[in-house]
Hints:
By secondary structure, the chain is mostly beta strands. The chain is 0% helix and 55% strand. The chain starts with a strand and ends with a strand.
Amino acid sequence: xxxxxxxxxxxxxxxxxxxxxxxxxxxxxxxxxxxxxxxxxxxxxxxxxxxxxxxxxxxxxxxxxxxxxxxxxxxxxxxxxxxxxxxxxxxxxxxxxxxxxxxxxxxxxxxxxxxxxxx
Length: 119
């Protein structure tokens, strides 16, 4: 129904910036929420940032003031601008979408993109 494809990961030095992109395809009108999670080696997957169709956003405390999630409208990709990156931001970043109540709040995940921040 919905597929997510991430891009933009890579290797960056501490203090640098990266921008991740996530393009959705399929029945994108069914998406209510989109966002980003990450999973570092040996750790559980955690929320980074999400945004709703209404424009509301939520960030993990660890990224507030450094990361910005954006999406112009329901048809556009969702972006994660990451500034002032730290080695502890190193992780696989996953794009996430939650579908409408009519589809049972189904959750969809991308394949992940690796972000490595060197000290």
